Amino acid sequence: xxxxxxxKAKPVPKPVALTPALVDAxxxxxxxxTSARAAAKPASNAPKPDQMPLQVRLPRQEVRAIKIAAxxxxxTVSDFMLACFHDYMKSGKHA
Length: 95
Known about the structure:
This protein is mainly alpha-helical and about 100 residues long. Helix 3 crosses helix 4. It is built from four helices and no strands. Helix content is about 40%, strand content about 0%. It is elongated and about 80 Å long. It has a domain of about 40 residues.
């Protein structure tokens, strides 16, 4: 018959007065609260130039090939596509 008994209320923590020491204390983020990707990612100090997003629709197989090619060169897809664009413009085949 335990299911019919009312649950006991959890005790409510008492309020604490804010002191300058508590307000100025640095925030500590536990390592377990960060994702593995965020924790392992090295901070890059090199500022990137102003960039604008460009959305392109491509067939699924071509997208897969582009992602593989970028990963083989250890580049992001954006950097790889920008390099491809510059090579295309240098080739003179665009006119």
